[in-house]
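Limitations

Structures in this collection are predictions, not experimental determinations, and the ligand pose is part of the prediction. Treat each record accordingly. The example that follows, with FE2/S2 (inorganic) cluster as the small molecule, is included so readers can see exactly what is and is not provided: the inputs are given verbatim, and the output is the predicted complex.
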Amino acid sequence: MNAPINISRRTFIKATALVAGGLIIGFSIPYAKRFLMPGAAPDVAPDGAKDAPKLPAPNAFLRIGSDNTITVMLAHSEMGQSIWTTLPMLIADELDADWSTIKVEHAASAPAYIHTTYGIQITGGSSTTWSEFDRYRQAGALTRALLVSAAAEKLGVAVESIKTENGFVISGDQKIPYGDLAEAAAKIETPKTVTLKDPKDWKIIGKATKRLDGPEKINGTAVFGQDIHLEGLMTAMVARSPVFGGTVKTFDATAAKQLKGVRQVIQVPTGVAVIADNYWAAKKGREALKVDWDLGVNAKLDSKIMLEEYRKMAATAGLPAAKAGDTKAALANAKQLIEAEYSLPYLAHSPMEPLNCAVKIEKDSCEIWTGTQMQTTDQLAAAKILGLKPEQVSIHTVFLGGGFGRRANPVADFVSEAVQVAKAAGVPVKTVWSREDDVKGGHYRPMYLHKANIALDANGMPTAWQHVAVGQSIMKGTSFEAFMIKDGVDATSVEGAADSPYLKSIPNYDISLHTVQATIPVQWWRSVGHSHTAFVMESLIDEMANLAKKDPLEYRRALLKDHPRHLAALNLAAEKADWNKPLAKGVFRGIAVHESFGSFVAQIAEVSVTDGEVKVHRIVSAIDCGLAVNPDSLKAQMESSVSYGLGAALQSEITFKDGKVVQSNFHDYQVMRMANMPKVEVYIVQSTEKMGGVGEPGLPPVAPAVTNAIFAATGKRIRTLPIGNQLA
Amino acid sequence: MITLNINGKEQQLDVEDDMPILWALRDVLHLTGTKFGCGMSLCGACTVHLDGQAIRSCITPVSAAAGKKITTIEDMQNQKIGQAVQSAWSEIDVVQCGYCQSGQIMAATALLATNQKPSDADIDAAMTGNICRCGTYPRIRAAIHNAASKLA
Ligand code: FES
Ligand code: FES
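Predicted complex:
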């Protein structure tokens, strides 16, 4: 861990350009080869080039001002997951910085900030902490080395005699604050190697650390996209087709234009935009607007009928996703058989902050202010619409009022639309979506149906697992398609099922996929494919344990005996939940364990059912994510995932009737609220295993843990989400 | 023209009578701490106090505020209960994305103004109209208890 690490000049660059007297550590990590989007190639020198690459400014990711402030630039977006604190922790620890002097900014949209693995600037896949763990620590360590060298030169002492502490370089009884050395450090040649700290010397990493964005989010000063105000900025709302794929036939803006504050009504590719002085005028204008739509091919869309079609498809095998042995024969010889069908609805992300995007276009440039998870895609889309080069488009990332995947739109939907509106209007415009626009706006977690036939032997252990999944592909048509879809199988459609650890102990299995060609826009929703596969897999395991008359925890332990990280999470959760001790009368337990995004989470739910009403009292969670960089924000993410996943499992669904989305706002698209929120306990497995993510892995097990508890309570197996009033 | 008293200051606004307080605050006065989440009194993001009562500013027209006092998140640091709530929020590190939190804090301060020692059930009842998509509910609950003990 603490061996010297090579720092090539291609990796880090320092400059003094931005702040007089300050030190700036710029960076240019060789960009990832995977997933690189066409047109997104960073401006770096090719391998072997002698000169440091010329980086598009700004490329800093760490600035030390002569006032001792240390500003950390985030290559990722803060959307609640506390990356605003976790990434600075990495730098501050290696730098021996004074934590109270740390300031944070979102980085610009520039090749320098491209994800170390995904090849575009993106925040997603629960990947930020592990993917930046080296890069941000190295930046801190390099900066420290430069400051030490500068101090050694200044004091005429050997580098070895110098130590650093809490923002000071210390030599003997001399103590120099970093800010005083910043300018000199900028002139020191970048060392070839730096040594990272031994983990035992970490002072910040691994310690529960308060959020740096807390104060501004408590006093109302934090700026979200919704809060952007610029000179002359107009507010726009777009009337979009009530049916996906519909187009404008004609529209009549006479009444809308007569309203006070309405400035323009213009057709744009996604519908008709009403541009006004403020949201209220735009909203009234849009209500007064008459649009005659050509509803197109989806005019009759009905999710009930779709599900029937899925059911028919599930009767035959789809494209193979995972296969071993002779499943057919083993099923024929089964001692006991499980035949089950599971289904889950479309889901909207509905982040608390409705989508919005502010755009200002000049002759040779465009500035965009928005909360986005995918700057590169947005930048390329805007550039294409405007006929500009990507670097002529600047994206100013502001706080995201929640993302959950929605703000990483593979076709840059909300940014493209805003650019189209601003271009057509000829004035700076902020598009604002209403909650209804959000709920009806698509880019949903796709509806899925799973059909499974499982054979058990005389001991109740599985001998064959046949499984057909049916649903839309998320990756199809995105820039990730080439990497994520193999032989027609979108890995995210079957992740958590086709690669399930349970299959490893089963000699015969056949997992296949029917990809539905629907035109409903779908997208990654917190935990992506795991959001449906974990429910199906962990419910089926429970069905099997029940048929085998075995304790569901013991049954899992037996099947997962060669999977130590699953076991560690299971055992910790079972211990903390007192699995073997009886609960209060009427309260029952359910358990689930699932790996996603490199982390392993077990959850035990305590549930009671009274007169058909489900009450979830407590969720005990245990996670093995490797190193927990900030244990408190990890806990917060687990609480968050439970809330988000449980809310959906209990109540949320998007359905279609006569081509239209039935739901519209939080009265009929119901989500978790305070009164339904259980007590959540989070325990962290002390682990030195490979680091995984924490933003999503807490979500997949919660639905099956709860429905398994419902089964324990009532004997009724919930095979369709949401649970809704199925027990009434 | 309508005169509104916002955080103790009289302000003249040239807006339609039916404009909700939310948009007068956000789009006209640029007091953006109060948030828009649903526009239909379903999420609580827009909660402000009108003469000390928590109201949903997204459905309350400016005309309803004439002659009354509007208090927003921006003024909480000047109020005793507001300070206690904000410091509890900070101690427990409640926030995540933060977007709902102005509304949560405004609802919590209104609750504590009338109920010095709310039970979990009281908190559920008072706060269930305030959605947090990030699921900060357990911490909000803890922070309200914490603020109550600070004020006791
Ligand atoms: S915006 Fe007012 S309650 Fe949701
Ligand atoms: S903190 Fe994100 S919605 Fe509450």
